[in-house]
Hints:
41% of the residues lie in helices and 18% in strands.
Amino acid sequence: MNDAELLRYSRHILLPQIGITGQKALIRSHVLIVGAGGLGSPAAMYLAASGVGRLTICDNDTVDLTNLQRQIAHSTDRIGMTKVSSAKETLGGINPEVNVIALNERVDENRLLDLAADADVVVDASDNFSTRYAINRVCIILKKPLVSGAVVRFDGQVAVFDLRHVHSPCYHCLFPAGGEDQDMRCAVMGVFAPLVGIIGCTQAAETLKILLDIGKTLNGRLLVLDGLTMEWRSTKLNKDSSCEVCCADEGVRISEQAVQT
Length: 261
Ligand SMILES: [Zn+2]
């Protein structure tokens, strides 16, 4: 690290859990963020500020006036611009040391397999169930840690599915039913602006902890936030041995049963 980097990251380096070794690990890291909206904005901004060396962000939307109430990577003068170009400008302004790969695409499972292959962590900041299920399947196949978040109205939730470990639950264990019919309803529901900041920042914190291998992540736990009472509820998640996505492989199911007995 050069002098400017030592200064930029000094408040991280002062933390014994991070230090120079941890900061160098962040600089070497690559995080894939799916979605550059309400959750993706704060998640990407904190990951860039923290010095994660490479951020790949994908989203196929353009900045709209109705986004600006909560999608803080974007600004009024960027209405009409692609969200990923707008986010790249914001992130470059915060930390020009970060290599931001901005992809103006709606990614399907095959594309995600390519993009996630050399990512250390995948952040799900998407806004629809088909993308969430695709990200989950890809993280199972590639054995990647998945940091998942969602917000609607005054309700937020965040969880980690560390799919590097065969006994970790997956997103589908938690939400087995297809929620495609809910997407339309969610798209027209209100969102309390700071909730996406709270959940997106929590996703950034969990991502950094995974990259640094420090503390205890939310793996196997779901945190649910009621923004009106500001009460957090933590629920332990178990792998569903009948999950058709992560337990489809008979070998996994057998080893899972062996652990339980
Ligand atoms: Zn599962």
